[in-house]
Design a protein that fits this description.
Strand order of the largest sheet: 1-6-5-4
CATH topology: Immunoglobulin-like
Number of strands: 8
CATH architecture: Sandwich
Structural class: mainly beta
Order of helices and strands: HEEEEEEEE
Strand content: over 45%
CATH class: Mainly Beta
Length: about 130
């Protein structure tokens, strides 16, 4: 149910995000483990250098922008084709993370971020004694 809720409401711009016809919002998967938070986002058509990723407090912001221009010539006419693709998403993180130790990989159109939890935010089991 939580996944369904997140898929429906996750497409709305978060505070500070701009919404517009040229911007798209995309789904992300967030996996919260004992030692790290793993975020996966489908973002086909981009290059690794197109991404701008920031962690501020407990919010992860992912932006990707790709501009492409091409000239087409046709029997005495000249056409310019411009394509602009921009994705933006702010995601509240479930735990405090160490951004200095974070890693990001982009393969086959999927961006994967691994954000290690801070030592204080790592889950620990508390044993109940009798």
């Amino acid at each position: 149910m939580e996944s369904l809720f997140n898929r429906f409401f996750g497409r709305w711009p978060a505070g500070g995000e701009q919404g517009g016809a040229l911007e798209r919002f995309w789904d992300v998967d967030v996996e919260d483990t004992d030692k790290e938070v793993v975020v996966r986002a489908e973002a086909p058509g981009f290059e690794p250098q197109d991404f701008d990723i920031h962690v501020s407090g407990n919010t992860l912001t992912i932006q990707a922008e790709h501009k492409q221009e091409a000239e087409e010539k046709q029997e005495g006419s000249r056409f310019w084709q411009r394509r602009w693709n921009r994705l933006q998403r702010s995601i509240p993180l479930p735990a405090a993370v160490d951004a200095a130790k974070a890693s990001a990989h982009y393969r086959n159109g999927v961006l994967e971020l691994r954000l290690p939890r801070t030592e204080e935010a790592q889950r620990r089991r508390i044993e109940v004694k009798t």
